[in-house]
Amino acid sequence: MSIHRKPRTAREPTIALINVVFLMLVFFMVAGTLAPPMESDLSLVRTADLDGRAPPEVLVIHADGRLSHRGMPLPDVVTYLTTAQDSDVVRLMPDRDLPAETLLRIADEAQAAGPKSVLIITEKALR
């Protein structure tokens, strides 16, 4: 009498897969630690009432397109670059009401004048 055995099928390594997923979960929990919640009795500093002053090495662009540096009016970006301490980086601080076309034109003029980079300074709000 011969007994026919069914061929044994290969079992899926589910335990190994679960272990890998668990290790990945632990890795991402450790690597991307969550920020602790802010303490309930802590109140943040309010800066809404402070006078906003431009940093000293910034080219201010007013709403009507006028340029100024340290409160002094300037005719163009090239004049600013000749007087700036760091002519490799031009920092533009546009007025909120400045038309985008004017900002882009002045940024293009600044880039054409030869600095390594042109930065636009904006307001960052904590919401």
Automatic annotation (TrEMBL):
Compartment(s) of residence: Cell membrane
Bilayer-crossing regions: 15-35
MF (Gene Ontology): transmembrane transporter activity
Cellular component terms (Gene Ontology): plasma membrane
GO annotation (BP), single: protein transport
Annotated membrane topology: Single-pass membrane protein; Single-pass type II membrane protein
Keyword field: Cell membrane, Membrane, Protein transport, Transmembrane, Transmembrane helix, Transport
Protein family membership: Belongs to the ExbD/TolR family.
Protein name: Biopolymer transport protein ExbD
Native species: Puniceibacterium sediminis
Lineage of producing organism: Bacteria, Pseudomonadati, Pseudomonadota, Alphaproteobacteria, Rhodobacterales
